[in-house]
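Appendix B, record 7
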Amino acid sequence: MTDDELQQRLQAHDPAASLPPADPAWVARLLEDTMSADQSTHTDTDLPVETRESGTRHRSPLTWLVAAAAAVLIGGVGVFGLLSNDRESSQVPSAGPSAPVSQAPTVTVLAAGAPTQGRCMVPSAEVLANAQVAFAGTVDAVSDDVVSLTPDRFYAGEVTDQVEVRSEPAMMQALVGAVDFQPGQRYLVAASDGQVMVCGFSGAFAPALESLYVAAFPG
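Structure tokens (predicted):
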């Protein structure tokens, strides 16, 4: 049986269920006045011998009836008050740990550089050190206008969760032809002025290219 069902059954058998709850202080005063008044209507000479000898006082049936009613009023208020408080407290949701707030991944956006005219210079650490962005990462996907990578180390630039190279299909085709981005492969990529550097500065991960990045970005 639930608390609500128990309360409903108790109230159904309570002849005063429709009345507002009695004030406990008023009930206490009523009981005290009744008991005092009852005592004043009798003298010790009116009491039976066994009552005088035992030290108890005679109470009229009305006195005990009022006392019983007061006990019911006070007890009833206590029972229903406890049931109500218990039910309300069980309905209050407990404060649990707050769910973590998901955040969108941070992204570095680069562009494909314009195709080089003529011959490329030999890659050097001195030239590579001018790159604003340099990182090692794995290619996630390659499309006509986007190459997506997940970086695992940044040599230069702000650290982000992802890197995307975005350009028009013609520019992207030229970049992929120069760097040969392939999904699932790891690369070293550098960018200057927001454009991916080619001519050997960006390419598939290899010890020789890695040593160039380490020399260009010590520490």
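Remarks on this record: Residues 40-44, 49-57, 76-83 have pLDDT under 50 and may be disordered. The beta strands are 107-112, 133-142, 146-156, 162-166, 186-192, 195-196, 203-204.
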